[in-house]
Amino acid sequence: MTGRKPAIFVDKDGTLVENVPYNVNPELLEFRPGALQAMADLAQQGYELVVVTNQSGVARGYFSEAELLVLRDALARRLREEAGVQLRGFQFCPHQASPDGAPVCVCRKPLPGMIEEAGDLYDIDLARSWMIGDTLDDVEAGSGAGCRTILYDSGGETVWKPGPGRAPSARCTAWEEVVRIILEPA
């Protein structure tokens, strides 16, 4: 286990970037206030950065995986150029939830599949990692993978459905708070 690095797993829409529904246009990519500086601060402390995002627009036929990967590349380039941060991974679930909202795969959040896959791919220590997202599904995915979790309360959570693994380690409304909590001595 030695040598495994911690990571910041971060939801894309509504957390890292502004939520523009079903967007794959790099020109509409706008970082949430404070997100770039937060990513730089966390990377400087040795955290890998991995985006984990549900992208049902692929299954719905709104855009292709190739179009999503163009957006991924633009996101990675901007993180590198504007914050000096290397994006370690971009895990996405291209599936649509079932009509009752339940996942139909092992990768769709609230299941931890994308986080666990990234942990294996990038040799990440999940117990020392954090999942940051704007919904309790993000929190549940992080908890299920063994990460600490932060609900980045930007208004994305609308259901507030309680349950096992859905209580975040912390709740914040600003990226500055997120960084302070993560870097605070235990």
From TrEMBL:
The keyword Metal-binding applies. CDD domains: HAD_HisB-N (cd07503). Belongs to the gmhB family. Its EC number is 3.1.3.-. Keywords: Carbohydrate metabolism, Cytoplasm, Hydrolase, Metal-binding. The keyword Metal-binding applies. This is D,D-heptose 1,7-bisphosphate phosphatase. It comes from Comamonas sediminis. Signal peptide: none annotated. InterPro entries: HAD-like_sf (IPR036412), HAD-SF_hydro_IIIA (IPR006549), HAD_sf (IPR023214), Heptose_bisP_phosphatase (IPR004446), Histidinol-phos (IPR006543). It is found in: Cytoplasm.
